[in-house]
Amino acid sequence: SKIMQEFDLIYHRDIPDGSQIQNGKIMRTRVGDKFKYHVVLTVKQPKKKPLSVPKNTAIGIDIGFRRVSNSVQVATIIFSDDKKPPQDILAPQKMISAIEHVLELQGILDDAATELGKKIKPLLNETPLNEEHQKYRLWKALAKYPNYVTLSFETAYKAARYLQIEPDFIPEKAAQALLEWWSGHSRRYRELHNLRAKQLLNRKHFYRQIASELVSHKKLIVLEDINLTIFAEVKDKDNALSDKARAQRFLASPSEFRDAIINAAKRETVPIKNVPPQYTSKTCSACGIINKELGAEKEWTCSACGVVHDRDVNAAKNIAELGKQ
What we know:
Blueprint: E1 20-31, E2 34-44, E3 59-68, E4 71-79, E5 87-90, H1 93-126, H2 136-143, H3 153-163, H4 172-215, E6 221-224, H5 243-252, H6 254-267, E7 272-275, E8 299-301, E9 308-310, H7 311-324
Parallel strand pairs: 3-6, 6-7
Antiparallel strand pairs: 1-2, 3-4, 4-5, 8-9
């Protein structure tokens, strides 16, 4: 066969002994102006017997995205049968700083694209494009945004790149403004995409390390049954999160951490259980009284028994106990 391309193959993880590779495909994803390739293999593994674990012990995990000093607290973990102190999972400060830089770059590009949209929208609407043009949808994305929606920097960048192929794609004044925007922000755009891809990969690796450590204890793992997809990482019409909370959500990505734990547990046949999330933070783990008046406070005192609770630790204890029931 003719050799079209040679490249190094880096294993995400080893193929288990006795497994059979059923098929494979090459996936290409764009990162800025470059492409990244992944070889994805579908592997059939031998069936493992479910792991037998003690029924009187559990690992309770309270997943969240609370800001702590220079980092973000991803979760609080407690071992119900051990004398170990509760463990807060904090994202590495270096990773958080890098992702915050990504958010800063994104904010700069967002603001610049918003100003660009104010300039070129009237010019584009004066000279509509033929609907049969191959880039009509791109032109429409530039020109037909409602007044309350700003121009995306992704759309602006794509249009600027296409202008270098077809300079008459849009009116001359609009094209000039778009190319000036591209000249001033193209390097920042590429930096954003490259850093984002790198840091998201670092975050995924960090979470998989934590998940592997958890399943190595070979104990029941208990999580709250929460649909974390409702906390979107980006703005959308169904998301009421503040900008600050949304940024912390992006930094921590609880759904990615949860998926890493579930995948590791399935791989090692460690049992995992979901419990109802209602009142896990508000229920006193000492006497069982529910503090319905509790807001977002980190610490609170039970009015019945006087025990002072750390909100996250208390939730993890209750989650573990619910899992053992």
